[in-house]
Amino acid sequence: MIVFAGPSLAGEDLSGFSGVTIRPPAKQGDVYLASLENPRAIGIVDGYFEGVPSVWHKEVLWALSQGIAVLGAASMGALRAAELDCYGMIGVGEIYRAYRDGGLEDDDEVALVHGPEEVGYVSLSEAMVNVRATCAAAVQAGVVSPEQSTQIVETAKAAYYKDRTWETIFAGVPASLLDHDTRSAIAGWVANNKVDQKRRDALALLHRMASGDIAATGEPRFREFRFEHTALWQRNTVSWRQAQEPAARDAEIGYRLVSDEQLYWRPDDDGGEP
Prior knowledge:
The chain is an alpha/beta fold. It contains twelve helices and five strands. Helix 3 (about 75-85) crosses helix 4 (about 95-100) and helix 5 (about 130-140) runs antiparallel to helix 6 (about 145-160).
């Protein structure tokens, strides 16, 4: 089983998840290439969305059409699961459910800035979903009032996602709502008690996959749909395979698979994503 993850699981000891291979955040083409390895399941947690194209919905549909379970949680995975659960993608966690039920809509809710793999994907900004979860916990703990929590959340939401840190959030809340002493007290509580909902959901996905209970009761199952082999799909898959190292490409693809794709492909390119 293969899971694409980065900042959502940064610093986490993942040695206990036997049978699960962790790969860097997914970019467009990665889910398709992973499906060529015929894993039992693919999990999407984190994915890139700036600088390179993000995970394409159609490559998830391709994996599902091949009988591979695809799960999503926490970040890019939650977004794609909310969009594709009607086709059988399995969503995991609170963030997925919030997108599914309409409580969340914007992509920036899960977006953040982070360092590269070489430095452990260290987070340089705060995900909006984590701000919401932390403020809800602070209200429950009696650290802030519901009104103060609402103002903190609104201030965070108004900020550009790259500039969204607890320091800038607190600085943006009017002094009439948070005086200096109160601000310092809340900041101290957040430093020690902030909620990382993305990490919680990502770990839930890993536990789900490692346990083998992938298709749990009440979750979406694979649903029949017609996968369209458009000219755009054909061009993209050829490009993704060619971008691999030749040795890996030869081992993972093989002549039969390439021939099958050409056999079923029809020149009916609609120029979009079915």
